[in-house]
Amino acid sequence: MSHLSPVQQRLRVTFGKAGPLKYTSNLDTAKIWERVLRRADLPILYTRGFNTRPRISLAMPLPLGISSECEILEIALREKIELRNQDLREELLAVAPQGLTVGDIVEVDSRAPSLHSLITSAEYRIRFQDGIDRDTLRRRIDDLLERESIIVDRVRRRKRSVMDIRPLILDLRQDADNVLIAHLSVGERGNLRPDQLIEHLGLAGLHYAAHRYKLHLLPE
Amino acid sequence: MRPQSIERQLERHLLQVEKPGRYVGGEYNSVVKDWGRADVKVALAFPDIYDLGMSNLGIMNLYHQLNQQPDMLAERVFSPWLDMEALMRQEGIPLYSLETKHPVSEFDLLGISLPYEQLYTNALNLLDLAGMPVLSRERDARYPLVIAGGHACFNPEPMADFIDAFVIGEGEEIIVEIASAIAKCRGLPRHEQLRHIARIQGMYVPRFYDVEYHADGTVRSISPNEPGIPERVLKRIVITLPKPFTKFIVPNIDTVHNRAPIEIMRGCTRGCRFCHAGMVTRPVRERPVDEIMAAIDEIVRYTGFEEISLLSLSSSDYVWVEQLAEEVNRVYKDAGLSLSLPSLRIESASADLLEKIGGTRRSGFTFAPEAATEKMRDMINKYVPDEQVLQTARDVYSRGWRTIKFYFMIGHPDETLEDVQAIVDLCNLTLREGTKILGKKATLNVGVSTFIPKPHTPFQWAPQDKRANVEEKQRLLKAQMRRGGMHLRWNNIEDSEFEGWLSRGDRRLGRVIRRAWESGCKFDAWGDQHQHRKWLAAFEAFDIDPSFYNFRERGLEEVFPWDHIDVGIHKKFLREDYLMSIKRETRVDCRDKCFACGILPKFAKERSTTEDMAWECPPVTPISERQRARQVAIPVSAIG
Predict the structure, then answer these.
(1) Over the Cα atoms of chain B, what is R_g?
(2) Alpha carbon separation from B233 to A198, A218, B288, B348 (Å, rounded)
(3) Using one digit for the tens of pLDDT, what is the confidence trace for B371-425?
(4) How far is B396 from chain A (nearest CA, A)?
(5) Residue B515: φ, ψ to 5°
(6) What are the residues facing B109 on neighbouring strands?
């Protein structure tokens, strides 16, 4: 370890969001975590400067309204702690708000690249609450997948851009319970959200509950 | 509607509204009790959105006091924002509590916090969203009892038509007494229930009082119309401050003041004549340092908040402020915790205090000189010489703070343009000091509010400044405060006028408030939502002249609509202070000399049970001992 780095340990925490926490934005989720870690009395490292902030980061934003079991939090600690996975998990859960779940906690090399750059795609389960029959949903899926390109006009920061979102749909199918399973690109190289997908399926009027259950990473 | 159906509806529709996290609860430290096992159920409402209401310490205190009782539960309610209200009305979702999603109409008691007058229309809207008639007389015992408390309730009259009973004064103890009383008189008609409630010291039930008016519209008399109802309702106080509340609810979304407050002192001894809080929160009670330090420790452990603010009306006057700053500095220097100590006096010592307490984070530096000429300073009884302002600015800027914020007040009727010009000049001099030290990095933010005479203050007789005058004064400020590094903020004139009507309003305003709300007024505290023309139309509809309430100088012997509300201060003391103001005479801090405002005789029994240091008022010896002393010593006055 470099003697210049104040980071004594880096932890990667897998966590989930459910219930009321679905309505908490990414920025506010980081704040929730900051306070959970402080309540658990973990030796978190703070940034230097006028307005100090804890050095924690969330790997990949989760759109508002979607539950998840696969979110990742990275924490930099100023003191090394004995990592007995189960104990720490219990400690965090004991001070977590309703809807926050904690999965694996692993230590990572302090020189490892940030997770954000490694995540490429995510898998979602989308359950339609109004009910849509199997055939209709299958037809919509097939129609969309058959298209070679899906060109959309996007206006971002006053700049108009035309892009093809078809390559961002990696997989799309329905399971035995008529739940839509979608594997979509996320991150800087191209991002497609479940609500955008549903719009392209022509199902925007339906009520649904979306759940993210897996993030795909480039090999480190 | 059942809680489950409300939850289903929310699940279905919430993503259609802005910041849905406002409407779901589930925060850490929120208290969810078993609905079926609670005997008394209380909904505590703040009539503005979650983002604001969550910062209200009063609501949190009451929430805690009630939920501590094994047989009671308290849950939170806030105003839905416009988009959510539209959704609720469209889908038939009634106003519900955040904890268990029960409709408000199923609670036994609805307590509405009314700290300021701009919330009145929202309070009516809450009742309506809860599916309840807004008029108190139209609600029988099937509906929850509706009470209100908070600083605006020291003049409860404008809201008398809508609220069943008002808490006058401090709520920490009385709230549990009210809840217990409700349990005891369940099943009785509403009128009977209110008789029970009116017996609790500090409770005001408007329907038990009749108001008569003179032909000119002023009040002739206010008198009880039932046996056993007191002529005047004395405010409720807690003899010593209860232990600070520390298990704050930690919001899941960002809020306006996303931090934990600790009240270090209640009340203020300065006697600034415009200050409503300074008059109605007497006597001054302070917390010991160790109690505050223990509270900080608990807050960090229980909530994880990174910011704590130490609240009082005048922090520099807190007797142990130095010791507190040193303790905070010793314990929390490198803990990543930010503490703020607002309301500091304009003096060099303040920079030292903030440097100690601020730790690694530094919140801004805010001072309130209020006025910039000797004349105005004397009139409002807040004396801070220019040189002291400038020296403090030098101390602050030279320690590396780049921004100072000043609060001034314009709009006293005897204020001239020269007095306003002096504000500009003082700000220029202040910023010049900053520029000498920090160059162009120095900034000065100047907030200039418009004076609104408040009930129970020495200025309750004074007229509010006329629109044309305020416009001229604001024009002067806007034209001259344009230097780089200086930022001016001011109050909207219509907002001030509106606040003026309601502040010193009487019962007849009930009709106006109702009409304004019916015509769509709500969120009046939000500048862009306040619909002044609709308010004027509501006044016109009942042929009431709004200027009667704010632009009229009141006669010295006039009976005020709030005279039956006793805040513990003699009216003759306030009158004397008002006349002193006109003569530009000042009073010193009442720590140095007791001016017999009235608090001590009103609360002599309470004071005789406290330690000397617990209140800032002089100690009171028990009557028996005083009588003994009188037999020995001849009073000085009898000799002269």
Answers:
(1) 25
(2) 62, 72, 31, 43
(3) 999 999 999 999 999 999 999 999 999 988 889 999 999 999 899 999 999 999 9
(4) 16
(5) -65, -45
(6) B42, B145
Q: Which of B130, B128, B143 is nearest to B1 (CA)?
A: B130
CA distances from B586 to A105, B202, B451, B578 (A): 66, 32, 19, 10
Q: Which residues of A touch B360 (CB under 8 A)?
A: 46, 52
Average pLDDT over residues A155-168: 85
Closest CA to B578 of B553, B552, B603: B553
Question: What tokens appear for B419 in the block?
Answer: 């007095």
CB-CB neighbours of B188 under 10 Å? 13
Residue of B96, B249, B252, B300 to mutate, testing the A interface (most A Cβ within 10 Å of its Cβ): B252
Cα dist. B345→B316, B349, B375 in Å?
6, 9, 20
Least confident of B16-30, B196-210, B354-368, B570-584: B354-368
Which 3-state string (H, E, C) describes B113-157? Answer: ECCCHHHHHHHHHHHHHCCCCCCHHHCCCCCCEEEEECHHHHCCH
Domains of chain A in start order, with CATH, are 9-111 (3.30.70.580), 118-217 (3.30.70)
Q: Is the dihedral of CA A45, A49, A53, A59 positive or negative?
A: negative
Sequential DSSP letters for B585-629: -----TTTS----SHHHHTHHHHHTS-GGGBSSPP---HHHHHHH
- Beta strands B265-266 and B203-204: pairing type? unpaired
Set out the domains of chain B in order of their start, with CATH numbers: 3-234 (3.40.50.280), 584-639 (no CATH)
Written as six digits, the tokens of B269 are: 């001894």
Q: What ipTM was reported for this prediction? A: 0.93
**Residue A141: enclosing H or E segment and its boundaries?**
helix A134-146
Give Cα separations from A174 to A128, A133, A138, B1, B475 (angstroms). Answer: 11, 11, 7, 35, 67
Average pLDDT, chain B: 94
| CA–CA min distance B526, chain A (Å) | 24
